[in-house]
Fold this protein.
Amino acid sequence: MSKEEKYTDAQLAAFSLDRATIPRHVAIIMDGNGRWAQKRGLPRIEGHRRGVTSVRSIVEEASRLGLQQLTLFCFSSENWKRPPRELTLLMHLLKQYLVEERREIQRQGLRFKVIGKLHELEPVIQAEMQKTIEVSAGNDGMTLCLAVNYGARQEITEAIQKIAVEVRDGRINPEDISEKTVADHLMTATMPDPDLVIRTASEFRISNFLLWQISYSELWVTEKHWPEFREEEFREALRAFARRDRRFGGLSVGKEAAPQA
Ligand code: IPE
Ligand code: IPE
Ligand code: MG
């Protein structure tokens, strides 16, 4: 996407948004596809299919709003517990999205990334992902990161294994292991932590998503199911984010000098 297609300050103001309070990184737990479909007497997969349309809308909107990164939770390491038929259809949709979206990712100048245990996915899916990662690596737009077959506990466990090997081989001293060492061994190494986590379909839980990275993220839950979550809902989440007072354990900006009660 060319720079001109990004929202101007005036356009942002018309949405009651201000560039200064736009989050750098938003991560979304896209939930409620099945319930959306069931409420309409449709098979669950119809919800997933509609969900892809929401993905397209939100990716483009996030880029127009000037986000640095958008991370989408597409498939968790626990989602393999679903019926085989749903799994087959989900993997088919993912494959289709990867192939069809490559051109759009290039048009918008996005940098495509994935996190998760990718080696457990079908080889053709891995290959399609790799192709998009490579062709989009030189782009300078928003990073679009898909979490596929992702689980935060597994990610942290793998990081511990990698650090343990480095300790065993004498490449790092246990006392030198810092928060940065841990962060650098996660699948999200080099990515900023999410500022805002959105979850759709009224579930107030994290479901094994980015446990380390969301220590100080703002959380926003909406009743909307993912297939009905579109640009306006996304901007509503950003307006709510702008009103939050992020203290990171300290005091609100401007309160430091306030007299003690
Ligand atoms: C989210 O929708 C998509 C995936 C987890 C793959 P769900 O399929 O979880 O929909 P609900 O929560 O059952 O409604
Ligand atoms: C979380 O949704 C995973 C994704 C959105 C990919 P789930 O529907 O799997 O979460 P639970 O089972 O309700 O916690
Ligand atoms: Mg769900």
User: Anything to note?
Assistant: The pocket of IPE (ligand 1) is lined by residues 30-35, 75, 79, 90, 201, 226 (CB under 6 Å).
